[in-house]
Design goal:
Helicase, Ruva Protein, domain 3; 25% helix; globular; alpha+beta
Length: 278
């Protein structure tokens, strides 16, 4: 599932390609994709795309002050941009045709089909966005805000980091990487953190996300990608591989179909200095 770093790179790649273009046609090939009703897509026709933003794991396409398209790619969705003349595949769920002769297509080749879209007048008041937590790369995400979010909670750190109502945009993969950088166990409970550990966690969140954005962009250049770029990660998806810091095999916990990877030594119970990289 695309997370904050993936979507930031997608937004950055797409913006110079299609911002300023007007929509001359829309096709919705899976009716339940649009949660605001299939007919709402017609509101995009004739509108110029003003900006592409991101909120949590949602991409936000703004066509003026009162017309916005929200897209959540979920597990298998990805975006394709190219010439209109290429025949859409059966996996094309949504197609925006721009007046420069290009298409933006939402592709979802595997089931279950989970990708979703909304056409709304006010994205911040719309159900998908209004309950999201703080953006971790925003100026509002301070050490004090993190302490406030954690205060009074008794839950594993991995669950805390992936709760979108608290911090928006961090998913399974980058929660693992953040905790590895902070040298904190994913099963450690939030209420047990010391002040030093809270400070390490706050730094690790921003540093990991910005590092990931740079690494992804370096690998894909200006090309859109149809799967998450994860080869540079230290622990996530690395079960059994030697830790690149200490050589200990990376461990894995499977809970409710979610895999958590960590280094038992680097993220053990003892307080350790944080990792610094990139």
């Amino acid at each position: 599932m695309p997370e904050l770093p993936d979507l930031e790179v997608v937004r950055d790649i797409l913006s110079p390609r299609i911002v300023g273009q007007a929509v001359r046609g829309v096709e919705v090939n899976r009716p339940d994709l649009l949660r605001t009703g299939e007919g709402s897509a017609s509101l995009l026709v004739g509108k110029e795309l003003h900006a592409i933003g991101r909120r949590g794991k949602y991409l936000l396409f703004s066509f003026g002050p009162e017309v916005h398209l929200l897209v959540h790619l979920m597990r298998w969705g990805w975006l394709w941009h190219g010439p209109h003349g290429y025949t859409p595949t059966t996996a094309t769920q949504l197609r925006l045709m721009f007046d420069d002769g290009s298409d933006l297509r939402l592709i979802e080749a595997r089931s279950p089909y989970l990708a979703a879209a909304w056409v709304v007048p006010d994205p911040q008041a719309a159900q998908p966005l209004r309950d999201l937590g703080v953006e971790p790369l925003s100026a509002e995400f301070t050490p004090e805000v993190l302490r406030h979010l954690i205060a009074g909670k008794r839950r594993p750190l991995k669950r805390f980091l992936t709760d979108q109502s608290l911090i928006a945009g961090i998913g399974n993969a980058y929660a693992d990487e953040i905790l590895f950088r902070a040298r904190l166990s994913p099963i450690r409970y939030t209420h047990t953190l010391t002040e030093d550990e809270l400070d390490r966690l706050w730094h690790a969140i921003e540093e990991t996300l910005r590092w990931a954005i740079r690494e992804i962009r370096a690998r894909v250049g200006d090309a859109l990608f149809d799967r998450e770029v994860r080869d540079f990660l230290f622990v996530h998806g690395k079960k059994g591989d030697p830790c690149r810091e200490c050589g200990t095999p990376i461990a894995e916990i499977l809970f409710e179909d979610e895999r958590t990877n960590y280094c038992p030594r680097c993220q053990g119970p003892r307080v350790a200095p944080p990792l610094r990289r990139g």
